[in-house]
Amino acid sequence: MDFTYYVYVLIAIIIGVFIFKKVASCMIKSVLTLVLIAALVVIYYLFFRGQ
Q1: pTM of this prediction exceeds 0.85
Q2: Which residues contact 22 (CB under 8 A, 6 or more apart)?
Q3: I need a labelling partner for 38 at 20 to 30 A (CA). Which of 5, 13, 19, 29 fits?
């Protein structure tokens, strides 16, 4: 195996981790927003159901 192969693999791993962090943070924000909206809908439904 050549040394440049290991350099390319290391660069690919670093880029992959960077891209995963960007995508994961975006997905976490989206999921938290959806959970917050769902909670607000449930609270609204439970609050106005009795009236």
Answers
A1: no
A2: none
A3: 19
